[in-house]
Amino acid sequence: MLDTSALMQQAERQCQQRGVRFTPIRRRVLEMIAANQGGLKAYDLLDQLAVEHASARPPTVYRALDFLIEQGLVHRIESLNAYVACPCPEHAHGFQLLICRHCGRVEELHLDDVNAQLAQRARDLGFRVERQTIELLGGCDTCKVEQR
């Protein structure tokens, strides 16, 4: 389970060191995402945020998400069009996501050798990678036990 308090402290420090503003809306969006063990969709975030901030609109959420992604605090789950908190935002390299198709739990991996091999192969083929997303969909141990 993600330690939300530690994540928020890390986010504060990281934003301060980079000289970027960690506004109350950005903070709240990160808190909501971190409190969810699976991914949250932008409109789910908007619904939750609108309860607290009546003026919240889709651009508010999308701007916060763009900022959080840019700072490495949140990842977009491409296959689900959802967002998940990064448990180790200080890790500057690529990542892989394990997604349970039953409960929605998302785990982040950092297999740097996989990233290095992909990057090298792309260079060998004369390809410049702009963004990399590796998602593995399957079943977690908890769901396997429950299905027996």
Short description:
The chain contains six helices and five strands. The chain has helices at residues 4-18, 24-34, 42-52, 58-70, 112-124, 141-147, and strands at residues 74-77, 82-85, 96-100, 106-109, 135-138.
Helical residue percent? Answer: 40-55%
Class by alpha and beta content: alpha+beta
The CATH architecture of the largest domain would be Orthogonal Bundle
Say how many strands there are.
5
Helix-strand pattern: HHHHEEEEHEH
CATH-derived topology of the largest domain: Arc Repressor Mutant, subunit A
Give an overview in words:
It comes from Litchfieldella anticariensis (strain DSM 16096 / CECT 5854 / CIP 108499 / LMG 22089 / FP35) (Halomonas anticariensis). Homodimer. Belongs to the Fur family. Its main location: cytoplasm. It is found in: Cytoplasm. The protein has 148 residues and is of the alpha+beta class. It has 2 domains: 4-85, Winged helix-like DNA-binding domain superfamily/Winged helix DNA-binding domain (Arc Repressor Mutant, subunit A, Orthogonal Bundle), CATH 1.10.10.10; 96-147, Dna Ligase, domain 1 (2-Layer Sandwich), CATH 3.30.1490.190. Helix content is 47%, strand content 14%. It has 6 helices and 5 strands. It has helices at 4-18, 24-34, 42-52, 58-70, 112-124, 141-147, and strands at 74-77, 82-85, 96-100, 106-109, 135-138. The strands form 2 sheets. It has a 3-stranded mixed sheet with strand order 4-3-5, with no helix packed on it. A two-stranded antiparallel ribbon has the order 1-2. Helix 2 (24-34) crosses helix 4. It starts with a helix and ends with a helix.
